[in-house]
Write a structure and sequence with these properties.
alpha/beta, seven-stranded parallel beta sheet, globular, binds glutamine, binds zinc ion
Length: 756
Amino acid sequence: MSKNYVIGFPRIGEKRELKRALESFWSKKIDSVELERVAKELRERHIKYQKKAGVEFISVNDFSLYDNMLDTALMINAIPDRFKNISDKTELYFSMARGADKIAAMEMTKWFNTNYHYIVPELSKKDEYKADIFKIEKEYEEAKKLGVKPKINLIGPITFTALSKRVDGEDVFEFFGKVLEVYKEVLSLISKLDDDVLIQMEEPIFVTDLEPKVLSLIKFTYDSLCKVDENIKIAVITYFEHANEAVRILADTPVWGVGLDFVYGEENLKSLDVLKDSDKVLIAGVVDGRNVWRNDIQKSVELLKDISKKIPKDRIIPSTSCSLLHTPFTLKYEEKLREDIKSWLSFSLEKLDELNLISKLFFEESLSEDEEKLYEESKKALSSKANSSFVHNKEVKKRVESIKSYDRELPYEERIKIQHKELKYPILPTTTIGSFPQTDEIRKVRRDYKNGFITEEKYEEAIKRYIDDAIAFQEEIDLDILVHGEPERNDMVEYFGQMLNGFAFTENGWVQSYGSRCVKPPLIYGDVSRDEPMTVKWITYAQSKTKKIVKGMLTGPVTIINWSFVRDDKNKSEIAKEIALCIKDEIEDLQNSGIKIVQVDEAAFKEGYPLRKSKIKEYEEWALNSFRLSVSSAKASTQIHTHMCYSEFNDIIKTIEAMDADVISIETARSGNVLLRVFKEVGYTHEIGPGVYDIHSPAIPTVEEMEDRIKAFFEVLPKTQLWVNPDCGLKTRKWQEVKPSLRNMVKAAKRLRESS
Ligand code: GLN
Ligand code: ZN
């Protein structure tokens, strides 16, 4: 019989039902009973979908009302002190996730190199762990009632610990013994749920370059977990990269199976020899769980056949490469997508059918009529994509092949002199990161225009009015370098995607980012090119309203790529070059229209870093080159800024330096000088705007506070190298907060200028 395995399923719902229910619950429109009713309905529906698609290994406990790491913390009673007085379970759960009256929420951070954010558990010496499998038991029983014998998903103890933080010291692994003990308790309780139970232990930390200390825990951990009860079988699942070091160890433990990602971890093939000599079942990830393109069925089947040359077929289970959490739910509701593009895609539901088809073909079972049809469709779609003139553009290819230089016209030392002469800004120049508050009014204008409720003329009038006000305000407070405020932009990537060829947008392609929040990344399906200027109209309009300099605002190629679903038939380095050429042209147009400063945002530069050190060089090379190519059209006198949304530059400072932006603004407001020092240590000479206040908080910083902060920067960097700006865009703030804050910021800069 054919077998197949789904690591996890999205839980937000095909129409984001869970999002709606959560938000209604938080705003007290529904109670917890109603919330649980919706949640249960979704869990059941999702199991039914998988069952219908012929999935054999279906999960429970992949569901979560907020996040699985948070669920795990509660499963073992790792509750930070500040929440201990909250007795109501639901209230406790959401307070940990989102904070409560005067109690700070737990921190959130990105799940490996995805855009999903997990809650970072906080461990402390005082913790007393105890097992609570209420949630698991409930979901297990639900599934059984639907006639499914599910596997139970758990975050593995090593990954859980590695991703937690310690609140009373440094080494979180000091508590590992305690964590392991409570996991044993959990397993022991689980073993009583049924005659035999399969437990999926997700250990994605195994795909990173593990320290020997952590590696040395694997054998002991899985030896002892397997021993808890003979009723349980454990599958250790990894994803996003290869896990060769860990596999070697796991092969020598009693675990039942090992899950490897053959889509993003081709090197996993090297582990086959190790597994061959063991008795392990190989859960082989061949259906891409984090991208949206249709699977090349034949290729996947061939891959499985290759694998089966080493591992007997009866020990192979085809699976998704990771949880389907990272892809949108279904194509079913896409009505506006061009038919051909739609035919090239596969979201979670469609991937189930692909997986089923792959396993049928691999295990050489006969196909049903529907499966035959899907197979034919799939082949047709792949060939249509391979030959489509929407995808392949000879001109773009030619241009990329003929790129000659990635360099600016002069080196920084010469450029900056020319720029100072041309731009004449004072020392400690003041500016902002680009966006101003996105008011309800401006959102409505954009929406109405998109829906055809207002004419283009009315739309443009409204945008211009916003820009007029933004410029007037910036002049009034005497800011040095102004911005237009980005009122025409919904999102810094989507805006550019909509103007470029090669991008498509879904109506319902939502992916959970954290809690109830979802994002709808653009799809880069084809060669990217630009037909006409994308920002010149608005920037030059703003410039026409003032004698001061207005800074043009663009999004860089690396950020556009990292926040999109990218085609899988071309290297990212190539795609990045195509996008870079568009930005290069845009800068040229801006410059020719009299714009003297252009900022190219690379908010997501750092998050694209690979999980394995050995791959960093390759990433840095294309990321760096594409940024440099983007700005290579700027004349020496045109000043290029870039902005990055973080402050931890220690590992990447050389690359940041090599980007060669004239000015970089970064997010230091919360970390202060500690992280700034690295710029001094490497002898970074270009100008820097370390954020002088935290835009994530509604608080209005005083002149004195900001003066102090800027003065503190002087301890690290010379005054002549510093800019004064907030630490990110202001679009999420209100004008009542932004106005006094910026007014104070300008005052602080002026005081320090005068006192020097
Ligand atoms: N220019 C963008 C803005 O101000 C930058 C946003 C970001 O870095 N995330 O909104
Ligand atoms: Zn930012």
